[in-house]
């Protein structure tokens, strides 16, 4: 694996090399500086986050993340035996904030007056160049003719950071189409149909059974969430997926929020519509709860420097509204809410939400652990639990005192991290 992990690292057995990958170069946290690899958790803790295997890769600081990861991926392809299978997961950090790019790519967009858009475009050009290099390396290494390249994003663009989903509604962090409809493509000599656009329902969980099917694995008898969609993509066959549960977020409900309207009136006694959730069944999409800002943001609306948003089309909701229904095939921009005129469809989808929720595992949201602070681990984001020689449940007096001293030290760490965060924000302000 190469790139961004962001799937937990509290214990060594959570790391990529303990989760099936033979090698790893990348970051463990969700975001960070593309050159220095400093990553901050809010204003509370900052540390170095670039790892080669299980060690911090200090010597690689200064290399732009996209270029660094592409070079490692090329080396993996160069050293791989073409007669054995290969799964390479390349999770590039671009185009995630902070918006940074090498000067070579920034110069392509000198005429772009919006600095956020300029940096965003430069980051994507660098990414595009990297993908082209990988395809060329696949050909040079003799792997191309029997390869499948899947480009899959995890969410829509963030308008606050140069992205644009126009004319779709909303952005990253929301359940509107602009937040959940992501860019993706499949490139392979094995495709029977090429140069076509698929409008089938495909979810990220479908890649796993699809890749297993391409590799010739026997059909799994486990109850997987995903479907093998290779026939849909490569041959134009009907897609086995007819529904997508985007999310059910039980912790989104505000404590003390009354149930009478959200459950009894808006939810027909079927579903608590104060819970943040979204579901797609066929052409229909249902949203409940606080599903995020639903503005329509044209590219020209993005602020330039200190200017405010221009021509921003704000959504307007009635007080107490907690259910929306759209026919996405006919209305992909989610402009015509049909919840009031199609109550029978709303009821059907609320029942499906309740059925999905019945199978859900209870959410676990432990509090932040001050022992994770990089200041306690050589300035590096790394595992802090379950380490060799560490007793997690220290019962002796010395252990308790040592922990107390570390927690006190963490308060100083947080103060230091605050100043680091403020400094990094000032630097970014100079960029934009």
UniProtKB/TrEMBL annotation:
UniProt keyword annotation of Cell membrane present: no
Native species: Xenoophorus captivus
Cofactor(s) required, per the database record: Ca(2+)
Lineage, opening ranks: Eukaryota, Metazoa, Chordata, Craniata, Vertebrata
Sulfatase N-terminal domain mapped to chain residues: 1-216
The keyword Electron transport is annotated on this UniProt entry: no
Keywords: Calcium, Glycoprotein, Metal-binding
InterPro entries xrefs: Alkaline_phosphatase_core_sf, ARSB, Sulfatase_N
Family: Belongs to the sulfatase family.
Pfam families: Sulfatase (PF00884)
Gene3D superfamilies: 3.30.1120.10, Alkaline Phosphatase, subunit A
Record-given protein name: Sulfatase N-terminal domain-containing protein
SUPFAM superfamilies membership: Alkaline phosphatase-like
């Amino acid at each position: 694996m190469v790139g961004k992990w962001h799937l937990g690292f509290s214990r060594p057995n959570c790391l990529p090399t303990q989760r099936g990958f033979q090698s790893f170069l990348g970051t463990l946290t969700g975001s960070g500086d593309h050159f220095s690899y400093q990553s901050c958790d809010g204003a509370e803790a900052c540390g170095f986050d670039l790892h080669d295997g299980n060690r911090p890769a200090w010597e690689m600081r200064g290399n732009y993340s996209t270029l660094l990861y592409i070079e490692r991926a090329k080396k993996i392809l160069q050293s791989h035996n073409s007669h054995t299978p290969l799964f390479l997961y390349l999770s590039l950090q671009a185009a995630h904030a902070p918006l940074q790019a090498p000067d070579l790519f920034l110069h392509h967009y000198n005429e772009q007056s919006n600095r956020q858009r300029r940096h965003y475009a430069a980051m994507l050009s660098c990414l595009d160049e990297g993908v082209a290099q990988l395809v060329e390396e696949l050909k040079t290494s003799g792997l191309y003719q029997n390869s499948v390249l899947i480009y899959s994003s995890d969410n829509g663009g963030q308008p606050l950071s140069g992205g644009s989903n126009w004319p779709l509604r909303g952005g990253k962090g929301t359940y509107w189409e602009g937040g959940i409809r992501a860019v993706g493509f499949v490139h392979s000599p094995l495709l029977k149909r090429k140069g076509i656009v698929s409008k089938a329902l495909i979810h990220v969980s479908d890649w796993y059974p699809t890749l297993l099917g391409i590799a010739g694995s026997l059909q799994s008898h486990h109850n997987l969430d995903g479907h093998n969609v290779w026939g849909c993509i490569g041959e134009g066959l009907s897609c086995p997926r007819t529904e997508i549960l985007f999310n059910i977020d039980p912790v989104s409900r505000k404590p003390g929020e009354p149930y009478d309207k959200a459950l009894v009136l808006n939810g027909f006694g079927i579903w608590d519509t104060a819970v943040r959730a979204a579901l797609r069944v066929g052409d229909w999409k249902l949203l409940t709860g606080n599903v995020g800002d639903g503005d329509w943001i044209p590219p020209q609306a993005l602020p330039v420097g200190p200017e405010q948003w221009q021509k921003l089309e704000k959504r307007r909701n009635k007080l107490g509204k907690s259910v929306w229904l759209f026919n996405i095939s006919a209305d992909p921009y989610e402009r015509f809410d049909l919840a009031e005129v199609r109550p029978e469809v709303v009821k059907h989808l609320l029942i499906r939400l309740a059925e999905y929720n019945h199978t859900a595992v209870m959410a676990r949201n432990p509090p932040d652990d001050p022992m994770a602070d990089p200041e306690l681990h050589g300035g590096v984001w790394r595992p802090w639990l379950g380490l060799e020689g560490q007793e997690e449940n220290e019962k002796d007096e010395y252990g308790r005192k040592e922990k107390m001293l570390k927690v006190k030290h963490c308060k100083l760490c947080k103060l230091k991290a605050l100043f680091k965060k403020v400094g990094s924000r000032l630097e970014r302000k100079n960029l934009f």
